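Explain the record.
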Amino acid sequence: MASGGIRATIEVKGIAKALARFKEVQSRIRTQVLTQMDDEVNAIMARSMQLTPVKRGWLRASHRRANLQAGRSFIKMGIEVGDDRVDYAIYVHERTDLYHKHGQAKFLEKAVDDRIRGLERRVGQAARP
């Protein structure tokens, strides 16, 4: 600084405590969001099972959670229908021209569409500290 100049200094103390608190809050928010996402997947899966065009059997029972992935900035969960015993799941799901006494085609898609409204709001509420 030049001779005759003036300097103002600002010092902030306690940053370590603040950062530790942020980590606690971040961990709590992540847990809350995971719980809400889990609830969303369960609700979609339950609705999809209700809409499956059979009252019981392998197709309905083949619903399962899939692809849980969690990174620093994202959480991804999925639902799968069909397996080695039920290799016809996509056929039943996609054939909108077939008549079903119970349920309907596009059962998983319809369940997702029904639940997607408000999902952002519900997950956003869960993300509050």
User: Anything to note?
Assistant: Residues 31 and 127 are 9 Å apart (CA to CA). The chain has a mean pLDDT of 88. Residues 16-126 form one domain.
